[in-house]
């Protein structure tokens, strides 16, 4: 894959960022105003990825901050039960709450999220709470873009990147852009550029790279030419139903197709994609296979109700791929 | 009742303050960590009181601020359907969210609330959004203590009190103390004292009056002697299962007993009490009868799942009173 | 004067609010850009009034908060040396700075102030730092309007008013409106109305009363008719060079003329007016005499470089009045 | 010097960061409480350096934000008169004030500063106000550490670094650590490490490098070994009266001695050092000579009253060096 992992490292991946609560509409295919019941799941991109990677049998850890209440305790228990190492999820003692995402599913094509992200606990992870000894124990550090949205979580994530680079832990940057947490796109662009230039692998949608570049409709070639002047070895750019592209520093380009599936909602596609793609890379599979794993995992999750609990096993992914070897599916 | 209402006024009561969302545990009698589904209701003390009074057949209005999203629209629609005049519920355009209350019912005796109140829309009602012409149209202005917790909602409520007094609209102050929204008890004491001194009727629990006085275990006599030097004509002090006391400026004391009932949860008791008590006063009933209405309404609501949807009709209250004419019930 | 003071009280007046630093242009009659040297004085309306009253031989105290630095220590020493009781000036331990006012004197008619008021120490006086025992020791509590501009100073001032009223200490409200510290005129109006209604004496310029009423060009009669429905016994409305009017609840109206003088700058006129006017009232002089004292004191201060150090003695005021018994002077 | 400058670039240096007001004690050698008069100068490390470099005959520009008031206008005029290009100093329209520094000179050894830095204009430079076209016009971008202390100035400075690197403009990082503007040393360490790793030249005191490393008493060798793994070519570490050391990536070490002089105050030593040191480098002088220029310039400035106006000319520096060719002087 062009990215040499430290195979001695005990953990396969450590994700840093938010672990939140999704409140998914029980009665869906209608406006949220008419939904009267909501089902609780763990959510948040890096939490979903850590859970997804654990579901696939690898060893994931998490660095994050949890509210000191029922929601925080639920998240920690759920992630521990899913096999994630939660020893570095710290408890907030300043009264901050867990972030919430109420999901509205009007139709498979019209999904939206009502977010509660004001002063939430995950944004109050302090740089002093990021441990060099812990990061050293992992092959990969996965940074979620949203962790960069506000101080002090921003500095905690930047410090984690500095420690990873110092200790030869590979850095994967999942752009995960959520506009509501940022002051401006100009601000996002500064930090996305900064971290992308220092990462080994960058994963995002075309739109997210446009935000990073503070420009619109850039060509993929321009994006990767810029990034390959810095640390990145592998850049993945997702184009929704048109599939995704993986570029390597050595000049190779791979295209992954999106599988067609019965979509219940679009949430969770990106997180399931990332977890299966990284799983395959860590397992030493080639990039083409990794792209298939990513697409298959996304296709499975969008057909189910949640983003975290829906994460597939290796058997499910492989069964899906073999059944659909000729098909194309929606992938976001 | 010692309080002369302007009988010409078109609206019986206008409540000012918060209208929020309650998310009540569907699976209860367990810790919230184990509750996976939540049911959505309108909540917030003054909203509950306005809905309760409408349910009893009177004409209620509301001054408040709603988020510009699905939760805000749900609240406005629900209250309008319940008969509340929502013409002065303004929409927030600064991105603030609706306040949330996740209710945990471990047992009928162990209920707690997980609150989302950071920067919520109701606290961003501006004094310029309070209309003198509207307040003039009502017999009573009901101020909820929580509306005083933060600026600019604080100034909006203080202005409403000034306009009510100027226009001979009676002011009812429901102490409704929620510690998490205030900087300190010293701050609460300043504003509670200020508004209580200017109100015609004050309603609260013994604990809430202690917060107002920034002191512990004050005798009711001391509390009412202080307040009767100012505007109040009627002071109601609630003592939980021991019932409630109503004091008049003319020196009369009335005791209301609490009805025993099968308690599902304790939330909503105070709001249902206030709405039925005020209903009776507005209808010209004597204070003893009003205390009975309040207790009966509270007993009915605590046996049901919600605080707003559970509000009883006059028929239900009167049937309850006649059935239990000899009993005593839990009232909070 | 229609205001009965508790003659047993040890202190004549306690002022609550800000004590700051003025940095007055040493080279004046030019734009501040061209002023290279600034002279340091104690400033801030209530501090100036306390110093002015002490200079006149009465006993003044002060409730306020000082920065824990050289400026804070200078203020405390200067006020103590001026005879003010500084035992209730508390030191800030949260890192807040002293407020600053750079004064620009382009010409006697064109004076402006460049203010540093962001997060300054005086606005962080907490209600818990206001002592009932101290307030009881005074005949008069003087509240400066600017103390109401932000929490927690706002609550400290409101609490002081509550304690004064409870203990029969007369409340004087000096409107002292400074737009930069307030969120909006609607907010100012709410608190100015609140405190004015509870005060015994209100002093301000016509413009300041307009802010209180959130209206423009109100007639004095309308203003005083409103206030006399509440606590005020005496209302002073200043009209700049046209002089000032004092209205009593009993229906009397007095006009004070402004003395003509050689004006160096206009700053400090209001504070020197208030201190001499209140001095005369406390000394039992009639209102006409008090108005003269106020005008004379203002005329003396505007001819000098500072606002605090310039405060005149009784001898200076009386000499001035006798010399100018026929003249009219600029008074703001 | 190991740093290849783009000799075609029109400007020699662009500094980014704060331009403020110093208020220096006119009566000194005493506590500030006893100083009654203050003299106004332009201050702030990057402004002083830009002025110093202009005084030496080079072409300096400045990127920063100024208050929309007399102080802001004074700064812009003073810097323009000093020859600095002020075309990219933008005016704040959000009401922020100019930062202030009151200097206390108790004795030449006991100098302290009373800072006004809350919400000051220079910290509100937005990344969108940093122009790539402008940065391209310079040989060097000088970043002052304090510009990184708060958003959005932090993002503006980070963006400037990204644009400089992209356009082959050399980056000089002057650590300029001021504790009061930062949340924590952990936060400072993250950003100092980030920018130092991306700079070509880093200049600071031993104490400032300790803050960067979030460690105490590190050996210089450890510091430079770390930095030379990244972009830096030249690292200058200052040790006060013991002089300064310059390390090059190629392994050379140079020691500069401090000149003995009659010290009036210690302020301004670092800024005058940096401007003369960079002047010499830009002029193509060797590092040993540059260290002498830096020390001489510092020695001259600490013997004078201000930091900006005191900046020496080339003739003064060269005369000083030739006169003191054998001496050692205090340099901070």
Automatic annotation (TrEMBL), chains A, B, C, D:
Record family assignment: Belongs to the carbohydrate kinase PfkB family.
Keyword DNA repair applies: no
Annotated Gene3D superfamilies: 3.40.1190.20, putative 5-dehydro-2- deoxygluconokinase
Domain of life, source organism: Bacteria
Keyword Kinase: yes
Task of the protein: Catalyzes the phosphorylation of 5-dehydro-2-deoxy-D-gluconate (2-deoxy-5-keto-D-gluconate or DKG) to 6-phospho-5-dehydro-2-deoxy-D-gluconate (DKGP).
GO biological process per UniProt: inositol catabolic process
PROSITE patterns xrefs: PFKB_KINASES_2
The protein's name: 5-dehydro-2-deoxygluconokinase
HAMAP family the record matches: IolC
One Pfam family here: PfkB
Residue ranges of domain Carbohydrate kinase PfkB in the record: 12-313
